[in-house]
Amino acid sequence: MISGVMSAFSFMQLFSLYDLYNSWENVGVFDFFLPMLLIFAVIFGILISTKVLGDNRGISFIIAIAIALMAMRLSIVSQFFTLVFPGLGIGIAVLIVVLIMAGLFMSNANYRTWLPTFFWGGIVIGLIIVIAVLNDFAWFGSYWWQANWVSVIWIVIVGVILLPLLLPKDTDKEFAAKEARHQLPMKHIRQDSP
């Protein structure tokens, strides 16, 4: 029995997830297979849900796989996915941390005032990721944009922050109507403190 445990530990010393990831990268899983699978899934889902070709799943499958394979011919597609998804992961992590910290201050009475903050925060994070990826591709090729894109982003962020201050306030009746439309998830678990 001890020899079986020792052999298991010796195997664990020889095998690591880094080796697995490196072998997957060498065979093209990250550069070709996963982006192709994502493109296929999105196109197939759109074709099935819109029923543009009727209920024939076989034709939708063939069209989706053909489009995904044709898209992967160009290396720019895999480079785009290589740049956008790490940024997306960081953006989601930032949004989750903000949600956790806001959970300290949210209650059933004031959750509605926080909803636009999370919505616009997600939009801003998404825009920053998209602009950073497009900037890495040099799609904004002029010297002025290359030198001033961060300043433009900060001006837009400040404008988005100041925009709610310039909008007219809701009346009590409008506020009550909006409050009735929005329900907090798991409202029965978390109750307001008196």
Poorly predicted residue ranges: none
Shape: extended
Strand tally: 0
Mean pLDDT: 79
The run of helices and strands is HHHHHHHH
Overall SS class:
mainly alpha
Count of DSSP H/I helices:
8
Give the N-to-C terminal Cα separation. Answer: 61 Å
Question: What can be said about the biggest beta sheet?
Answer: none
Total count of domains: 2
Strand content: under 5%
Q: Helicity range of the residues?
A: over 70%
Your description of this structure?
This protein has 194 residues and is mainly alpha-helical. It folds into two domains: 67 residues, no CATH class; 110 residues, no CATH class. It contains eight helices and no strands. α3 runs antiparallel to α4 and α5 runs antiparallel to α6. 5% of the residues are buried.
Blueprint of the fold:
Layout lengths: L1 H13 L2 H11 L1 H22 L6 H15 L3 H28 L8 H26 L6 H24 L5 H10 L13
Helix pairs in contact: 3-4, 3-5, 5-6, 6-7
